[in-house]
């Protein structure tokens, strides 16, 4: 369907710390990059949770006791990490019982050298966020496209020696520190939670490293997953169901430490990869009482850094997502933490990289639209509308469908998967050697016109960006593991995969050549999108009944940019939106591979803050490959144009409707 919609009469609704010196922290933050509009520590840093590093204590089992309240409850104290910080220092955490009213800071203790609470305790921050944004539920073609772009090996052969004796690949422990509930004893599959981000990350890794499932006689299943709940908060407070979409810095440090402790205690000999598809903005890193050689930093952030150091010194590999832009003209720049520590090495042991930073690319191998400027990484993986199969590890999962997700979370998942594959076949390699193999097997993305030199690097010098290839990684790892008394199995030949082209068919289109139709604009009522409406995470709370472009992503109105790393909806995979140079015409396209059985309904146009219902003027439903030209009524040039659509509850598996969204931001120069 090629349609041109003229603009006649439109009815619109306006919506209306002094401590010992820590190792140097070379990932500096430029003050010019910090914007008050994008950073509000008073919102995210909690009055009822305080963390700090006490001085003058020789027994690391003790934290200074708070003063008991005259009546009722008050502060409780615990030690989330012990002996991690330089000088065997430890972090103390104080939590106020909110049923007792507002937190009483006067009951907090001095430390052993007499520093008052304000000088050694920081407000802990719900600054740790997932780095992948949920959108529409899983779509089979996108799952296949993800496998293709990852160059997934459909089978991972066993290494045979002397008949049926298999010698590999070996298991690899993978710790997913995210929104999923903690694994139970002996549980080795990704767990789930109210917010599906952590499960989606785990399943993305599993699909690449366990292609025919556990127990297959022809294909190995390498990973053994252990989930650790770090995102346990909603709106800054503890999530009622445990799993949330924000987490405290101190909680992240604690869960990294738990993962290392469990791994060391198990003594299985399997290597450990810690996947951190979470992070916090650089602004939080520079606020606090913990003093290092480069300035004063947040005590919780330094505890995370120390936990990572312990993991790396014990031989674990840590893969951290580099983060997503916050959106708007004051959007975030440079890598988020802990990925920003990628250029640093360990202390207290032989030097090795602290973390590996992971980025993502879209279906055409371009940087994601929500990528953070000056945060390009040496290794990337497909991370645009990643769709995973929620039935793979559980035949009766709940929910049956997971949302597709976009963001550097899945760059981290892809790189974790490639590293697990190499380590499974080559268990004698060190973490650094594994990453060298992964990079060598990855597809170069640099061209003569665009060298794509990385900004965030884990080696001595920055290299150009490459996309991981699971098939290449498998081929190289198997070739290095077999030979001599271990015969080499047959492996599938690896061929470069061209960027996936089944998405928006907009390249090279000339809107002027479209057939014009002239349905008269009806006087229609656009949805009531109140400016003050609070949008909720659709996986945990009922979605809005209205299909409003400003309410289509869990992080848009939920909290300020200081807490959410997402830029708002980064676009939908079923639609494309182009605007003419004079900003008077929109070209809307629907994917040519969209399932015609999935209804696309209730299109809503937003021009700046005015909304128009389009359903009655298009005269017929939108379908795969449709292209519509919409003439805009506005002059001067708008700043933002957006289109949203609805999906039926039958598709989502939830009550109500979800909204998909494509937006163009046109910032005035």
What would you note in describing this structure?
17% of the residues lie in helices and 22% in strands. It has twelve helices and 31 strands. Helix 5 (249-266) runs parallel beside helix 7. The radius of gyration is 26 Å and the shape is globular. The protein starts with a strand and ends with a strand. Mean pLDDT is 75; it is low at 6-39, 327-331, 500-571, 648-659 and 665-669.
Quick structural summary:
With 669 residues, this protein is α+β, with helices and mostly antiparallel strands.
Using brief descriptors, characterize the structure shown:
single chain; 669 residues; alpha+beta; five-stranded antiparallel sheet; disordered C terminus
The end-to-end span amounts to: 35 Å
Derived from helix and strand composition plus strand pairing, the structural class reads alpha+beta
Largest sheet: 8 strands, mixed
| Beta-strand content estimate | 15-25%
Shape: globular
Q: Please give the number of β-strands.
A: 31
Q: Fraction of residues in helices?
A: 10-25%
Unreliable stretches, pLDDT < 50, 5 or more residues? 6-39, 327-331, 500-571, 648-659, 665-669
**Oligomeric state of this protein:** single chain
